Amino acid sequence: MNPQFEEMQKRMNHIGNLNNYLEDLLAKIPGNMLSGKQQEKLMNVLLDDKDLNKLLEGLKDPRPPRFVLVGRTGVGKSSLINAMSGRYLAEVSDVEIGTKEARRFTYESDGQVYFEVIDTRGIGESESFDQTAEAELANVIKGFRPDAILFLQKATERAHIDIDVDSAKKMMLNAGYDLPMVGIITHVDELNPSRIKNPADYPKGKVELIEEKKAQLMRIFKEQEAQVEAIIPVSSYIEWNREADNLSEEERRELTIEFDGRYGIEELLDFLEQSIDIRAAIHLGMTIRVNKIAEKIALRFIKVFSALAATVALSPIIAMDIAVLLSLQTVLLMIVAYLSGRDLEFKTARELLVSLGGIGATGFTLRMIAQQGSKFANLVLPGAGSAISASIASGGTYAIGKAAVAYYLRGVPEEELNQVVKRARDEFDKGME
């Protein structure tokens, strides 16, 4: 198994057990910064947040994403899966699912499952696909509980598109619960001029053809009154360093990409990670884009903590003051650092916060906190809670989170972080308009 995956899974699982993890983090905060009562209330606010709890469940129990693939023979289902993973995955079908109209696969490599898939074997082209077969397939899909339906249509195919869309629509309705359906136009590299396989070299005419195909499929979905969340044109074109057909599974694991002609795959992955069950999205990121998943999870925490900062600022129950806000932001910064593979001490995190200036309230106040650390419990700040508006608290927390991502996950130098903070505040303010 990929050691990066194992290490990231360990860290995700650790953060997912937020009770223990937060206790560890809060224990690092000097006792003169937060009282025991304030720590307890801060913990309660964090643990009561629904969005945060949803994220934590995903971190504790990631699982392979489950997709239903709909598309005719030759549409490029396995090629798409390999293009999404960037690896030549083993296609394993060892589960009998009780209908000849579909097969269930796992796609895996080195004992690690990347995807679980039901391939509907081109239901639109099957003359034997009657009401009985529809009911059987619907039961299989209900039991499988997929995260999404991937409707694949070949870019160079012109016939039967309406039949295929109608079949997919019926399948969704028979399954009995809402599923995101993604329309995927495959083999866009085969559009004229088909000899040009490098997406960076696609001429204007080819790009326009791709957009025409996208508009055509969207029009058919509307005519059929079938719900589709997105239509994404892709090319799965990859040249491997060896012919894969007659290789063993072990040899296939060693295959590397010699020429990468993939188009639209990153957009597809982005969409799926944002749209499917959080547990599946996290697994998808950890197996395929391990270098990006930490940032995506960090951005989720930033969103949650920014909202929490506003809630805390407005709540008289929390007895909000500068110290509580600073502690909340410090915890966020320590989580982002941990996602990058670093265990950050409170003192280091606080120094970084202070160096940015103006996060919680004013740069002066934060510098005073840093300078007066041991004396802070004795400071009296009349009206501090009311002085920190929800906007300042939320926007400042958002900015510090973005600065932490830039610093720990992107390697932005510390001297450039003030500019990151300024841009993040502007971004936050625009979002509030």
Structure description:
With 433 residues, the protein is of the alpha/beta class. The chain has two domains: 3-61 and 292-432, no CATH class; 66-276, Rossmann fold. The protein contains 18 helices and nine strands. The protein has helices at residues 3-16, 18-27, 36-47, 50-60, 77-85, 131-144, 161-175, 204-223, 249-253, 265-275, 278-288, 290-314, 322-339, 346-356, 363-371, 384-387, 390-409, 417-432, and strands spanning 66-70, 90-95, 103-109, 112-119, 148-154, 181-186, 230-233, 235-240, 257-263. A hairpin with a 2-residue loop joins strand 3 and strand 4. Helix 13 crosses helix 14. It is elongated and about 70 Å long.
Radius of gyration: 25 Å
Share of β-strand residues: 5-15%
Structural class: alpha/beta
Give the SSE string: HHHHEHEEEHEHEHEEHEHHHHHHHHH
Biggest beta sheet attributes: 7 strands, mixed
Average pLDDT works out at: 80
Shape: elongated
Annotated CATH architecture of the largest domain: 3-Layer(aba) Sandwich
SS elements, strand count: 9
Identify the CATH homologous superfamily of the largest domain.
Answer: P-loop containing nucleotide triphosphate hydrolases
Residues in helices, as a percent range: 40-55%
Number of helices: 18
Spatial gap, N to C terminus = 46 Å
What is the total domain count? 2
Low-confidence segments, ≥5 residues, pLDDT <50? 358-387
Spatial strand order of the main sheet: 2-3-4-1-5-6-7
State the CATH class of the largest domain.
Answer: Alpha Beta
Provide the CATH topology of the largest domain: Rossmann fold
